[in-house]
Amino acid sequence: MNNIETKNESQNWERLIETEPLVKPVIDIIENDDDFIVKVYMPGVSKDNIYLKLEDDVLTIFGKVDLNHVEDERFLLREKSYGHYYRQLTLSDKIDTTRIEAKLENGLLNIILPKHESIKPKVISIN
After folding, report:
1. CA 119 from chain center: how many Å?
2. Other CB atoms closer than 10 Å to residue 96's CB: what's the count?
């Protein structure tokens, strides 16, 4: 079993999944020769409040949002859903799970899922 976590479990984010409102973040998945790149849109979430967990072949993405300000406001129009971001992705066996990387910039979490060397395209030279 393969486990990767970016933050200390003492935060007990898994409990929030069961008790707090959740929003499914919008994602884009891009493929190039070397990687799959998952772009997860989580505006308003800081790096310290993002938790990634890989267990077996399931990648869990969780972004903790401060929901206190929402309860105190009186909305005239409310189009945005409020809640913690939560999404699970089942990864292909084409992914080298030992080399997964993640980077957050301006509310966009980029998760780089490197391909195993054996499945990368190869250029065959002609003699």
Report:
1. 24
2. 14
**CATH code of the domain made up of 3-115:** 2.60.40.790
In the chain, domain spans: 3-115
Q: What is the distance between the alpha carbons of residues 42 and 100, in angstroms, rounded to a whole number? A: 19
**3 state DSSP class of 35:** strand
The label of the residue with tokens 């008790």 reads 19
Across 9-23, 78-92, 96-110, the highest mean pLDDT is recorded for: 96-110
φ and ψ at residue 116, rounded to 5 degrees: -65, 145
pLDDT in tens, 11-39: 577 777 777 788 999 999 999 999 999 99
